[in-house]
Amino acid sequence: MSRPYCNVCQRPQVSCICHLIHPTKNDIHVVILQHPSEVKQSKGTVTLLSQSLSSCQVIIAEDVSQHQEFLAVLAQYQGHIALLYPSEKAEMIVKNSEVKADEIIKCIILLDGTWKKAFRIYMINEVLHHLPHRILPENIQGQYQIRKTKKQGALSSLEACCYGLALMENNTEKYVGLLEKFKQFNQMQLSFVPKN
User: Are 38 and 61 in contact (CB under 8 A)?
Assistant: First the structure.
């Protein structure tokens, strides 16, 4: 017999995360390029993030070079879009209030997947190489306890997005509530892990 699923978060009722959704009005549009293998990943944070932010879209694809929805985003935000990704050419995020009008970021792109899968999305989509790249300060401590990585300073997609938006919008308080819900999401996921 199949398990009943929530129609909103698309998770089994027993692990529904709708009570953790924290409506948050972000000023900078968020686009998440999600690797197809992440869609049904119960530990993933994109559902909580995308259901909470007022301006967010998720594009599920590995190759977006011909993806109409993604190409429309590039056209709409041309000159005001950046990729949050630690490439060699990435520059530190700065407040939008501290840059010239023609350099203000109005849309941020995140790659969602394991480091290996995110790197693959980056490598096969040359269009991403030509965008400005931004990175977060190294002193941000992640709270993502349910997925292990050897990468120093690794953050979940939700954390990276919230910290990036907070810095660019110069409003750290706005995303505190969502980050608190993320901590509860962690605890909920850990509660499903069998104890030895």
Answer: no
Compute the distance between CA of residue 137 and CA of residue 148 in angstroms, rounded to an integer.
21
Domain ranges for the chain, please list them: 23-135+156-191
36, two tokens: 């197809």
- Among candidate residues 121, 109, 151, the one with its CA nearest the CA of residue 37: 121
Phi, psi of 4 (to 5 degrees): -70, 140
Question: Using one digit for the tens of pLDDT, what is the confidence trace for 168-180?
Answer: 999 989 999 999 9
Residue 18 has a pLDDT of: 92
Model confidence, pTM: 0.90
Determine whether 135 is exposed, middle or buried from the number of CB atoms within 10 Å of its CB (0-12, 13-18, 19+). middle
Q: Helix, strand or coil for residue 61?
A: coil
In angstroms, the first-to-last Cα distance of the chain is 28
State residue 173 phi and psi, 5-degree precision: -65, -35
Residues with Cβ within 8 Å of residue 18, at least 6 apart in sequence: 6, 8, 9, 51
Determine contact, residues 112/162, Cβ cutoff 8 Å: no
The number of angstroms, rounded, from the C-alpha of 89 to the middle of its chain's C-alpha atoms is 20
CA–CA dist 49, 81 (Å, integer): 19
Residues with Cβ within 8 Å of residue 65, at least 6 apart in sequence: 124, 125, 126, 127
